[in-house]
Amino acid sequence: MEIAGAFDTFLNILGILIKMAVVIAIVMLHVAYATWFERKIIAHMQIRLGPMEVGWHGLLQPIADGVKLLFKEDIIPAKADRYVFMIAPLICFFAAMSSVVVVPFFGSFTLGPFEVSGVLANINIGILFILAMSSLGAYGVIMAGWASNSKYAFLGGLRSSAQVISYEIAMGLSLVGVMMLSGSMNLTTIVEAQAATGYKWYVVPQFIAFAVFCVSALAETNRTPFDLPEAESELVAGYFTEYSGFRFALFFLAEYLGMIIMASFGTICFLGGWQPVPGLGWLLPSGVWWFLVKVYALFFMYVWVRTTLPRYRYDQLMALGWKFLIPLALFNIFATGMWKVLFP
Amino acid sequence: MLPELLFFYFAIAITGLSLLVVTRRNPVHSVLWMLLLFFHIAALYVLLNAELMAAVQVIVYAGAILVLFLFVVLLLDLKKEVEDEPYVDGWPVGIALALALFLSIGVTIHALEPAAPGAYTVAKIQSLTHPVAVGEKLYTEFLFPFEVVSMVLLVAVVGAIVLAKRKLKE
Predict the structure, then answer these.
(1) Which residues of A touch B64 (CB under 8 A)?
(2) Structure pTM?
(3) Which of A6, A33, A92, B9 is 20 to 30 A from B97 via CA?
(4) What is the structure's pLDDT at B152?
(5) Which member of A125, A136, A158 has the closest CB to residue B62?
(6) A111 lies in the same domain as A171
(7) Do residues A52 and A170 share a domain?
(8) What is the crossing angle of helices A126-147 and A187-196, to 10°?
(9) Is a pLDDT exceeding 90 seen at residue A321?
(10) What is the residue extent of each domain of chain B?
(11) Could you tell me the fold of the domain covering B1-81?
């Protein structure tokens, strides 16, 4: 009896570990190819070809880049705060990586005796977990900026953290409308609640929130037009100026991972998650493909914005966040509340 | 067995981390140890099935308050701070006060009697989900105190803006 119980526990833990390994491998592959995807899109928008040499149309370029970064020398500046400098990229990377555990990639289904769930940890506070992890990521950036003992890195770190903290408020408020409509902070429940409605996607009633979310997501991940923390004309590369080799690669991965997580987050909360586009369900075989299509559509938008818009000035960035997006998100909460009261 | 082991780990780690926070010479290091401390406290909440509290602990304390702390500390001139004598003179008084506090807490815990279990049992909270259970109480029974607290915070925010604005005019 006792042994059987212990064996069950062991099997459970083994199952969780295997799932984690599979999810990490797949997500990291997507992150690597997100860089290729972005370089290719930018290149074609600028009438260039982009990476073409390594593999067919540069398909092996991310692997070549990864190998190169692994074998580069890891330089730590003499006047840097050694341990904080070494830990900072790890914090950035792990904060981004742990957000993945609450992302539901597909609905649960049964495969023989096993029930396969589309999410690693189906917790009731999924939204809060992702927000908490994104605020932890800000620490990695501040620590990197401070520990490098360089003016450029320090300014980049301060800019980034101020920006992330400001836009986190707008992002959190924009998601309140979604929570009000679905009555839950569990990401799986949110997707299922959307499928049960007549309009299928929350972006229909929550279009204001979706706009606020998209702008805040760009700012949260330090992307153009909000990439002041790494404005190359003023700050070299911002907070990771002094980093090289694998530690630089960790920052780089964390940034792209953050983008994919924000795209997934937007897909889950506003675009119906793994549910197919209404009426087009026959096009793709299963939910996870729909999820990927939506995530890459949002990712494409990120890149599109990057190639189109110039960088904001710092005071414009703060004014947009505090004086426009936050009041707009608050109005959206009020409007959603009125809607729920008037048409229950 | 496992929850107890985890609790002992977190309890010991929290004590150790608190000591690290107050003994570091570099204030930035103190703040970073405190960040780790906050995460351990959040883990204690998770052990108590209070996942919402854990998330709030991380978002509010680690994500908002401590970042502002870190900002202030980063903008100080740390070179002098690091070389200064780390402790102030009146430490015997401090130790006496700390011991007195420890004693009074010990006496209080000894005299503590657990109240009768309320309507919100673990099973009920799990079926309701934690955010719903907290929300139901907070926005019905405790609505007035909740609004009072938000007013107090609003007054503080307005006060801070007024102070900052006056400086700008000079």
Answers:
(1) 135, 165
(2) 0.83
(3) B9
(4) 94
(5) A136
(6) yes
(7) no
(8) 130
(9) no
(10) 1-81
(11) Four Helix Bundle (Hemerythrin (Met), subunit A) (1.20.120)
